[in-house]
Amino acid sequence: MYTLGIDLGSSSVKVSVLDVDSGKCLGSAYSPEQAMAIIAPKAGWAEQDPTTWWENTKLAILKVLSAGNISARDISAVGIAYQMHGLVAVDKNHLPVRPSIIWCDSRAIETGDRIFSVAGKDKCMSHLLNSPANFTLSKLLWVKEHEPEIYEKIHKIMLPGDYLAMRLTGEINTTASGLSEAILWDFKAGGIAGFVLEAAGIEKSLIPELVPTFGIQGYLSKEAAFELALPEGIPLTYRAGDQPNNAFSLNVLNPGEIAATAGTSGVVYGVTDEIISDPYSRVNTFAHVNHSVVDPRFGVLLCINGTGISNSWIRKITGAADFEFMNKKALEVLPGSEGLLFLPFGNGAERMLNNRQLGSSFFNIDFNTHRSEHLFRAVQEGVAFAFNYGIQILAQMAMKPTLIRAGNANMFLSKVFCNSLSAISNTSIELFNTDGSVGAARASAFGAGFYKDYSECFKNLVRISEVEPDPIIREQLLNAYYNWEKIMLKQFLQR
Q1: pTM, two decimal places
Q2: Which candidate, 282, 147, 127, places its Cα nearest to that of 196?
Q3: Of 224, 209, 308, the residue nearest 266 (C-alpha)
Q4: pLDDT at 368 over 90
């Protein structure tokens, strides 16, 4: 018996198949080979066509089924992880009325500030645990105000994962965890936040019906089954944003546990059972996948937009063969990159910097000293420094991590990045044999009832390695970090 996990990112769609009995991944595939296009009609905007997500989901599923000895008849459940905070709007025929405004789009910052003021700052923080900021609700109001003819066509709004679920099942629904990331969930009332919809002038009828995060959310339709070469009627049993899902995939479910990712964006995500909100909205609090009114679990999320995309950018402009080559070359340079510093903030407004757009920059370039390997190392150190700055914000909220769990993927494949992050934050890092698509497949098995409890669900999760803080590297990096922070704060004050 197998389950299938879909991880919808902004660069690609990855699909994995899990053997439920052994807990092992039987195969993975992704599409496209090159990153999916992000449309930027104006500076600070970021959009994607939702139909390309579906097309690449189809291609990835067909790849994984054809590459291994996997029978489509043995797929018993499906789970979805997805890029968070996006806005998908469809008409009555379930067709998108415009491209999706995705997570790193910055156009609705001022719109969110107005909703925050009208709805009441104190009420927002106590009921929503966040300001509307630049999240899904604010993006929807931006459409209403700037594209009224398009807004009039909207039948339902969705998050990106809800759109994939709709294409799989033909049904439009969402989850409480999803609505919390859209800033549409009232934690005190335990339901849709009607007061913030009223403040924004948004009709409640646009919000989909609710389904549980784990459990039956619909069944594979005849049309989708034909397109995917899968049996009709397979249940969809799990759906979560990529960061709560990453935490689930690493068995981060209980208070005090911390997960991290460093894909296109970078995230530190901690779980707590206490209501925590940041009055400056530098970090955000959402309903975790196992949240309930009786046994609350909140995910406190710190996001840095420009992490893996920084690494991809430097690879592209230098013509480096691959990331493995870059990681090896970076090891040839001493910690501190001989004075070269990098700010990784070139992918839209940064929440932890109060929604400022600092841009990305190199500092202290010496034409006679610095070579491509210095660029590679400085980028990875700059990302690690940004993580450390954010971890200090978490510490102010009594969530200072001493151990971070991460999947053995993306920037965590680099010794330079792992050693730099561990040393400068004085935090141990554990790396596991999982990723977002495997996590979604495991979660779908749990949602389908194939595992009786979490202990059985994670019995075959394997820790690959552990990185301990190196005091020598820390000493070498401290001066570089202080210089980096000084430059970053100067840039911040100028914006």
Answers
A1: 0.91
A2: 127
A3: 308
A4: yes
